[in-house]
Amino acid sequence: MRHMVVLLYSPPMSYENISNFSFLSEDVSSEVATVSILLDGEEADLECVKSKNLNISSEEFVAADAILVTYSVTDTSSFRKAVHCLTMLRDLANKQPVACLPLGPGLRSKAVILVGNKSDLARIRSVTTENGRSIANKYDVKFIETSVTIHHNVDELLVGALTQVRLKARQAAALSCKHHAKFTSRAKNLWNRLMQKCDLRFHSCDNLHRL
């Protein structure tokens, strides 16, 4: 199965640094790269699209299965831009038809991850982990900090993005079974399992393996 992942970034995060993400092309001139991932015995192709200046059109938003909003933990300006981007994404989501928002308003129906890069530069950090986590909780999105330079959490981000896409698709399918079809015992069991995963006691914005 193929999924579209849009990576949104802005200066001072350099184009070259963004291109070092393992799931993106090493060719800095390339805007699109595809990578295959085998997760839980099921293979998926992620088509990763880079978009500078945190820009995304309504059409791209609808087409995207996952969106990564990035900022530098060493630059408060890039963090503010990322927060503004999340507001824009939420507004785009709320303009969609209800049928396109099976999991509710806002960004709940889309796999969106806030990504704080350059986490290895502790001495010049200006955006705390708690700052990022707080914003992620506010916008109901996932959160992770990475370091492209030392390859910290880069693979985790990739696997987490695919996991979120699958979890949201399964939850939407379970909701569809509940509201639009006969609620069979099989569908009910699926629904119950998904609701257990969504239990607020276990909810954490930085756990990319839960909804």
Automatic annotation (TrEMBL):
PANTHER family: RAD, GEM/KIR FAMILY MEMBER 2, ISOFORM C, RAD, GEM_KIR FAMILY MEMBER 3, ISOFORM E. Coiled coil: none annotated. The keyword Flavoprotein does not apply. It holds the Pfam family Ras. The keyword Phosphoprotein applies. GO terms for molecular function: calcium channel regulator activity; GTP binding; GTPase activity. This is Uncharacterized protein. One of its GO terms (cellular component) is plasma membrane. Keywords: Phosphoprotein. Gene3D superfamilies: P-loop containing nucleotide triphosphate hydrolases. It comes from the Eukaryota. Belongs to the small GTPase superfamily. RGK family.
